[in-house]
Specification:
Layout lengths: L10 H10 L13 E2 L8 H17 L7 H10 L2 E2 L5 E2 L2 H10 L3 E4 L8 E4 L2 E2 L9 E4 L4 E4 L2 H13 L5 E3 L10 H13 L5 E4 L7 H12 L2 H6 L3 E9 L3 E2 L1 H12 L4 E5 L16 H17 L5 E5 L21
Parallel strand pairs: 9-10, 10-11, 11-13, 13-14
Antiparallel strand pairs: 1-6, 2-3, 4-5, 7-8, 11-12
């Protein structure tokens, strides 16, 4: 009766060790690229009305202020340059271009484990915003953001499991020269994270020296072009229905250099307004399409993704999926 069963080896200790050990990626409940749902506040008929209104605006009103190279790309694809200088897009051209759009894009990280496959309804979260001020928690006040703040944000992003990419969240206001700011932005982000990075450029001539730096980081131009780990966030149109000429030229230089492009379009109230009503819903889509056409014409196969600035999509946590070119955007 006094005999005792031998103690189980590894019972409680094993359970504690299991709880303290990170799960393998394939067993995690939350992980990059999980399939999400779709918010459907509109009926199919209402979606088609928005789609038709966007096509009407592109075909009848068109866009102004395209750069000369953009005019050549777009008219070569079938767009029409009017006597008023506006470029108009026939419906058939829009539909054909959307049909050719890639449904699957991979945004690469410097470490392959951070690669993001943007397809179907896969969801990824990241930073964004390009803020010019920071909250000083010690002084309970606002101050201008600095390059160190940007680097710190990149380092934080790198260790947070549920932040999957770094879209430049703030501007280095302590660097007044625009070229120096753009180059230091690239360096601060790359030195802080191995995840995919999104940034912008102030001037087309600044792209080449940035690419030279990226080639060195990647281990050569060939390695960079095989796995470009930085994309260009490009707001290539401005209201009301005009190309942002300099941004289009930046986009062209980035495409030549093999850099993926995130096409941004801001609605009339700006890129960070309150959620919109149904009335202006066609604006982001009629604005985004010309960028698709220009980028596809300048280099077929270049990676591109579209994100409307409407309702603050590029301001906070971003749902980044492939820009599926169907009618239910």
């Amino acid at each position: 009766m006094n005999d005792q069963s031998p103690a189980r080896s590894g019972g409680r200790a094993a359970r504690r060790a299991a709880r303290n050990t990170a799960l393998p990626d394939h067993l995690r409940a939350i992980r990059p690229g999980l399939s999400g749902g779709q918010y459907n506040p509109l009926s199919e008929a209402e979606v088609l009305r928005i789609h038709s209104a966007a096509l009407d605006a592109l075909e009848q009103i068109g866009l102004a202020d395209a750069p000369e190279s953009g005019v050549a790309y777009l008219t070569g694809a079938g767009a029409i340059l009017g006597d008023d200088g506006r470029i108009r897009f026939p419906r058939a051209l829009v539909e054909d271009t959307l049909a050719k759009a890639n449904r699957s894009v991979t945004y690469f990280g410097r470490d392959p484990k951070y690669d993001m496959e943007l397809s179907g309804s896969r969801v990824h979260y990241g930073t964004a915003g390009a803020a010019v001020h920071m909250v000083d928690v010690m002084g309970n006040d606002y101050r201008e953001s600095t390059l160190q703040d940007l680097h710190d944000a990149a380092r934080i992003t790198d260790v947070l499991d549920n932040i999957h990419f770094l879209q430049r969240p703030m501007v280095a206001r302590d660097i007044t020269d625009n070229l120096e700011m753009d180059l230091n932005t690239v360096y601060a982000c790359c030195s802080g994270t191995f995840k995919h990075i999104g940034t912008s450029f102030t001037d087309p001539s600044y792209v080449a020296p940035a690419l030279e730096m990226l080639h060195m980081i990647a281990g050569g131009e060939e390695a960079w072009r095989a796995r470009p780990f930085m994309s260009n966030s490009n707001c290539f149109v401005v209201p009301p229905m005009k190309f942002a000429t300099e941004s289009c030229e930046v986009m062209e230089e980035c495409i030549k250099g093999g850099m993926p492009v995130l096409l941004l379009s801001a609605g009339m109230p700006g890129p960070r307004p309150p959620p919109p009503s149904r009335a202006p819903s066609c604006k982001p889509w009629r604005s985004a399409w010309p960028g698709w056409s220009m980028s596809m014409r300048s280099r077929p196969g270049i990676q591109r993704c579209s994100a409307p600035g409407h309702s603050g999509l590029i301001c906070g946590l971003v749902r980044c999926q492939s820009a599926r070119a169907n009618r239910r955007f």
